[in-house]
């Protein structure tokens, strides 16, 4: 046989062997795939997996041409006894070391999962417990040796969440077989169930589910040193109803410590980011947070918890803080939370008060709060300072420029609100209040504050103030104001416009004490250079309205003090003021303004009563003194009622005549007294009694009696053989009464060395009408001795007849009636005087004296 033929036959044999080998290989593969490997191979694979701590059982082991060695219906158990299954897989692909396999040694290099379905019971001891289902589990688990496992591409989906796992774990010591602890299994199952329940609160867009990357590394023989790193990413994630975008979480777990290197998300363009760690053993952790999210919405929507419920935040907020916390060990303990940081709140409403912004450094220690560098921007001012809230006590130290009504939501005392509401502010008003104090959080009425307040360009109770300053001490029971100084603004005050003078007045008060329980205000040591009415109006409006009737030309000096009741109907009010005026004061009396100079008085203000006591002044060049008491109206629109007594001495008659437009009043002065009562709205209500005397004047120069001079001259001139020759009635006096505005007298007397005048009648001060009778006895021509005594002793009716038929020399009678400004005088028959022969007209006239 030739060599060539041998080569051809060898080729044919080799080809046949290859075909047979391929056929055998394909047939074997088909057989192994269809029939499966024998039990011995399955046992070897199972035993090999146990060396890696993977306790499995599977229905069959076959060889897949495309995949390789494949185990079907795999069950993974917790322990070697295979009592507690922890996972079930449809199949796994097992890769072995072929070189070792050729030498008869089975060495598994890796296990591959392709679109596997994992169904894990939450409680392995209870087949009916909820199950953890993973879909599309794919990846390779490398088994470099029996004590190490690693993977870099294992992935699965859980409820749509993409999960990727990389791990590198090993074991130095062989795992010890142990019986599962049922109680531990139960607790673990409860935790898993709680996790699943919690996970049901989260929702996301099906088109962009969250991505979770996990990396596990460490020695299984020292599990406390195992490290788990995690990353979570989601473009759109919702917890309950709270929307989060661009969620980014990174962290790790090692040595029972969970660390968040980054936890961030966005809510409605607001950012939240934090770094934190948590010790699982000690249940304590630390954190650092930067947030601009609406923290109230976050707490309410995520945890159904109201944070700072008294705040209604409509604007943004920013919080930067570092802190630590410790979870309660049992239900009787509370969360231990401490942190410091900086916070900003914008546009929020606190108990009805709108605030633009609040910014502060803060410290929180288990409910105790310290705010430092606090700045509150309110539409009507600012507050700066610091606040400490510890236990049930809130302490503050602040400077405020806010108006009083801003604090009304925090005040429970209605009387204090009423007093503060009387303050009115303008655009030019400036306020500065420094306050140090405390508030009981459980009892808002338990509070106190001390400090100083200064105000400019304000109005209190209708009184314009250039400035007001005071130290104060306030608490729930009382309010004390010290060193009070007010500059009153008189630029628009009527008296200042009329009489000129300084545009301001000064009021100083040593102390004002307001007792809320007793409902009164004590005022100590008032010192003022001011028109009285504005000062009194600060405390008592009705009394001030009455004092307006005293029209001071320039501000007098006021001193005093007292008590004012703060509730309607209170009988505690008794304010005593001493008033000394260095200039003129106008007081309206009988429709004319009297000019009082150097007025001094003690004004006592009581409930519905103003007493002007120790009144003294000079007017018409003479002194006036007495008192006036005014009962103030109880209802608006009602008249006031007054009573008093005035006395005067040597008032110049000519000045009095000019004031009341009485002509021909040239000389003389008046002395007298008048005790009276009346009503402010009508002269008809004037009642009283008094006396009056004229000295060194001429009674008949008075306008009322002036026209009588002509008649008297006509009587005297023929007798004296001279015209207009008669003695002047220089002195006169009378007692009088006033009833319902009508002046009555019955004992007018005026004497000269030779003439006696007496008179009686009335003057209606309201209608300005008179009816007066004047009698005259001229003794220069006929003395009393020349009149027969029997005539005098006759009944006055008979005397009237005699006198009416034939005049008796020296006796004449005149009657004046008509208008006060233009009375008509005429002769009338002589009538018997009221006192008969005891009437002064029948007595010898004494030397002229002033009647006092």
UniProtKB/TrEMBL annotation:
Lineage top rank: taxon: Bacteria
Stretches with biased composition (Basic and acidic residues): 832-842
Region (Disordered): 820-852
Originating species: Rubritalea halochordaticola
Signal sequence interval, chain numbering: none
Protein name: AsmA-like C-terminal domain-containing protein
Record-linked PANTHER family: DUF748 DOMAIN-CONTAINING PROTEIN
Source lineage: Bacteria, Pseudomonadati, Verrucomicrobiota, Verrucomicrobiia, Verrucomicrobiales
PROSITE patterns per the UniProt record, alphabetical: PROKAR_LIPOPROTEIN (PS51257)
């Amino acid at each position: 046989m030739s060599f060539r033929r041998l080569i051809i036959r060898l080729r044919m044999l080799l080809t046949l062997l290859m075909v047979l080998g391929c056929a055998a290989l394909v047939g074997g593969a088909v057989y192994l795939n269809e029939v499966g490997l024998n039990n011995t191979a399955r046992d070897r694979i199972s035993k090999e997996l146990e060396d890696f701590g993977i306790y499995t059982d599977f229905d069959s082991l076959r060889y897949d041409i495309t995949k390789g060695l494949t185990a079907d219906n795999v069950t993974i158990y917790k322990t070697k006894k295979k009592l507690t299954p922890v996972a079930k897989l449809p199949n796994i692909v097992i890769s072995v070391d072929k070189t070792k396999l050729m030498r008869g040694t089975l060495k598994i290099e890796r296990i591959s999962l392709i679109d596997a379905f994992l169904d894990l019971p939450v409680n392995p001891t209870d087949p009916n417990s909820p199950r953890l289902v993973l879909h599309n589990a794919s990846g390779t688990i490398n088994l470099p040796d029996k004590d190490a496992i690693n993977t870099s591409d294992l992935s699965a989906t859980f409820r749509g969440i993409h999960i990727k796992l990389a791990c590198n774990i090993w074991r130095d010591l062989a795992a010890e077989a142990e019986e599962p602890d049922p109680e531990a299994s139960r607790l673990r199952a409860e935790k898993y169930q709680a996790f699943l329940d919690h996970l049901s609160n989260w929702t996301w867009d099906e088109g962009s589910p969250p991505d979770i990357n996990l990396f596990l590394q460490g020695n299984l023989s020292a599990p406390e040193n195992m490290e788990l790193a995690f990353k979570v990413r989601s473009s759109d994630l919702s917890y309950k109803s709270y929307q989060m975008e661009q969620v980014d979480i990174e962290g790790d777990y090692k040595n029972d410590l969970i660390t968040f290197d980054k936890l961030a998300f966005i809510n409605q363009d607001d950012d939240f980011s934090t770094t934190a760690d948590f010790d699982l053993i000690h249940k304590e952790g630390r954190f650092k947070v930067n947030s601009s999210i609406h923290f109230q919405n976050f707490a309410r929507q995520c945890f159904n918890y109201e944070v700072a419920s008294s705040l209604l935040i409509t604007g943004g907020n920013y919080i930067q803080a570092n802190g630590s916390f410790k979870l309660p060990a049992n239900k009787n303990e509370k969360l231990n939370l401490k942190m410091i940081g900086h916070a900003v709140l914008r546009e929020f409403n606190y108990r009805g008060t709108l605030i633009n912004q609040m910014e502060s450094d803060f410290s929180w220690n288990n409910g105790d709060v310290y705010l430092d560098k606090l700045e509150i921007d309110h539409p009507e001012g600012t507050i700066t300072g610091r606040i400490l809230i510890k236990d049930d006590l809130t302490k503050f130290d602040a400077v405020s420029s806010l108006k009083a009504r801003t604090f009304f939501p925090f005040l429970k005392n209605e009387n204090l609100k009423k007093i503060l509401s009387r303050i009115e502010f303008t655009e030019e008003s400036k306020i500065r209040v420094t306050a140090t104090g405390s508030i009981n959080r459980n009892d808002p009425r338990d509070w106190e504050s001390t400090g100083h307040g200064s105000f400019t360009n304000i109005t209190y109770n209708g009184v314009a103030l250039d400035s007001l300053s005071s130290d104060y001490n306030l608490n729930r029971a009382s309010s004390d104001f010290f060193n009070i100084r007010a500059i009153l603004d008189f630029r628009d005050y009527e008296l200042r416009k009329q009489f000129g003078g300084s545009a301001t007045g000064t009021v100083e008060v040593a102390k004002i004490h307001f007792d809320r329980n007793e409902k009164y205000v004590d005022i100590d040591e008032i010192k003022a250079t001011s028109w009285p009415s504005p000062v009194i109006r600060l405390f008592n409006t009705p009394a001030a309205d009455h004092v307006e009737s005293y029209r001071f030309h320039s501000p007098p000096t006021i001193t005093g003090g007292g008590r004012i009741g703060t509730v309607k109907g209170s009988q505690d009010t008794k304010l005593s003021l001493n008033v000394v005026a260095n200039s003129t004061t106008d007081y309206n009396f009988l429709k004319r303004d009297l000019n009082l100079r150097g007025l001094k008085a003690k004004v006592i203000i009581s409930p519905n009563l103003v007493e002007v006591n120790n009144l003294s002044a000079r007017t018409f060049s003479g002194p006036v003194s007495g008192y006036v008491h005014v009962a103030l109206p109880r209802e608006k629109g009602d008249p006031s009622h007054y009573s008093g007594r005035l006395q005067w001495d040597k008032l110049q008659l000519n000045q009095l005549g000019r004031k009341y437009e009485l002509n021909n009043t040239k000389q003389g002065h008046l002395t007298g007294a008048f005790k009276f009562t009346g009503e402010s709205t009508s002269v008809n209500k004037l009642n009283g009694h008094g006396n009056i005397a004229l000295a060194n004047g001429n009674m008949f120069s008075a306008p009322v009696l002036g026209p009588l001079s002509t008649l008297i001259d006509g009587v005297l001139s023929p007798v004296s053989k001279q015209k207009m020759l008669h003695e002047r009635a220089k002195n006169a006096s009378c007692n009088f009464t006033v009833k319902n505005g009508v002046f009555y007298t019955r004992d007018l007397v005026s004497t000269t060395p030779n003439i006696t005048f007496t008179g009686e009648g009335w003057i209606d001060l309201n209608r300005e009408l008179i009816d007066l009778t004047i009698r005259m006895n001229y003794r220069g021509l006929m003395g009393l001795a020349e009149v027969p005594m029997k005539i005098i002793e006759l009944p006055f009716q008979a005397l009237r007849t005699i006198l009416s038929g034939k005049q008796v020399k020296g006796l004449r009678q005149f009657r004046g009636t008509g208008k006060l400004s233009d009375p008509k005088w005429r002769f009338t028959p002589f009538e018997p005087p009221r006192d008969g022969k005891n009437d002064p007209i029948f007595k010898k006239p004494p030397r002229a004296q002033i009647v006092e």
